[in-house]
Amino acid sequence: MTLLELLTSATYLMESLAAPGQWDRSTYLEAINWAITEAAKESRCTYHIASPISCAASDNRLTLVPAPLRVLGVKDTAMGKVLLTSDPLTENALNPNWRYLTGTPTAWFEEAGNLVRLNRKVVATTSFDVEVLESPSALTLDAHTVDPRIPDHLQLAVRYGAAFYLLTQAGDHQDLARAHAFLGQFRELVTGRVASKENS
What we know:
The structure is a single chain. The chain is an alpha+beta fold. It has two domains: 3-46 and 137-191, no CATH class; 53-133, no CATH class. It has five helices and eight strands; from the N terminus they run H-H-E-E-E-E-E-H-E-E-E-H-H. It has helices at 3-15, 25-43, 88-94, 152-167, 176-191; strands at 53-56, 61-63, 70-76, 81-82, 84-85, 107-110, 115-118, 127-133. A hairpin with a 4-residue loop joins strand 3 and strand 4. The longest helix has 19 residues, at 25-43. The radius of gyration is 20 Å and the shape is elongated. The two termini are 26 Å apart.
């Protein structure tokens, strides 16, 4: 689909609910890009980057550029070792002081944005290869078509994701009940599963 088609579809849907002109094109674009990224996350439809992102650790964090959709794995290139996947709760259970330990990391977990946290502070210059799912290319007002890796049936779902995004923003037209109904439609179209009332 083209950006114009997505904008027209989302605008038609939203203006049937709220006063015409409530959101400008840049806000619709922000909502559409959010929905495209969420569709990619839910469906895992984007390609793997051909080459892993190579980066050095700063303290016990890796900063990934560009920001990926999802981190799949981390490898210590000097040791030739693939690190285990972990999470803060697990690390706390193993050692409450893990944040202050130094040495060779054995595990990683994904933080918000483009950060990966390691379970040890790296003291030597060590390179890590990070395998990721690449994020879809963001649309701009100059772009004409959606990232071709997003299948057509997911592009049709984008207007419902955009509606959820817009209706959860603060303001006179915030409508959380209707927003979550749209989120349920969005997830059903993206995943092929009917969302329960509790999770929609």
